[in-house]
């Protein structure tokens, strides 16, 4: 067992921390208020290699391990979870799936621009009636000669309008249930592909979340990833890794709120001394620090297992379940430590509290993580 980060890991963490402070922090409150996507910031993140951290360098990626990605996610999420979710989806849902299961032609065509952030990707599984119950896909793709005709609606798609490349899950043979689900690469601008309304959200308001409509969209057969019927396995395996990214995001949100609360508690005076000298606040800080450390160990372990080539499905579900709970608890407490100041935007913790909530919902709700974990426990 080795709890020490390598020089490379420390350098990645430092670079992400520096970027978050210098590039994400200015303007983060306005982007949240105006629900404005961090376009320029994401472009710079692409230039610095954050959008394709784990991708093979031969496709313009960073060739780094999952732990490096987690460290960067943690630091960026301390400041701007809207920017970090865009990065997470691009890295672990889109690029990982394409690189692992795409054909050589698909990889050469799509990965290099996605890995540098020149193009952004989106992962389209959820539907109006298929959120947690992901096998109930209503979107269909019907084979018609050398192409499929794609019809249906996808909901709550991260990077919905910003993306250019969409991995779309659809039924190709409804009689086979989840074994009749396939996955396709769809490009923005194809006829019949309409981007629906942008969601007005509680948190991660800078993130670009849309519904998508497909009406007889012609998708070439060569844009199917893997065989027909492989789509559900693709989605599940991709989400196993994606959940490590969201767990790291939750950890970062918690750690960001804690750091603000700690600093504030040393400055703010009440009853003649800094509030950090009152046991009521000290106990809150102790609980926050302990929960964050426990979450960190789970998240880093899930990343480590993935890097070792071990099974990480249950570890990633545990990490996401726990880190997202910690994110919620810690951000609520960070607002409490700030008192009235915590309830206004200027102090950042109210935004982090709103941002924390989504980590218990997307890439599988906490209840879904418990299904995944309990199945592993009972196996
Ligand atoms: N890893 C690998 N395979 C898995 C898996 C996992 N974690 N979970 C299920 N599977 C496989 C099963 O082994 C099974 O395969 P076989 O039939 O070959 O044995 C198949 O998938 C179907 O599984 P179940 O029979 O268990 O199906 P179910 O309907 O009972 O449960 C579920 C499936 C686990 C609940 C699944 O529907 C699920 O994970 N739901 C949540 C979906 C989700 O996470 N959505 C997030 C949307 S994406 C998003 O949020 C991105 C974003 O923008 C931020």
Feature tags:
binds acetoacetyl-coenzyme A, 379 residues, globular, alpha+beta, 11 helices
Structure description:
By secondary structure, this protein is an alpha+beta fold. Helices cover 51% and strands 15% of the residues. The protein contains 11 helices and 9 strands. The chain has helices at residues 7-24, 28-34, 39-47, 66-77, 81-101, 104-115, 231-267, 279-307, 313-338, 349-358, 366-378; strands spanning 121-124, 140-144, 147-158, 165-171, 181-187, 193-198, 209-220, 269-270, 273-274. It has a 4-stranded antiparallel sheet with strand order 2-3-7-6, covered by helices on one side. A 3-stranded mixed sheet has the order 1-4-5. A two-stranded antiparallel sheet has the order 8-9. Strand 2 (140-144) and strand 3 form a beta hairpin. The longest helix is centred in the middle third of the chain and has 37 residues, at 231-267. The radius of gyration is 21 Å and the shape is globular. Acetoacetyl-coenzyme A (CAA) is lined by residues 85, 89, 123, 125-126, 132, 134-135, 158, 178, 232, 236-237, 239-240, 313, 362-364, 368, 371-372.
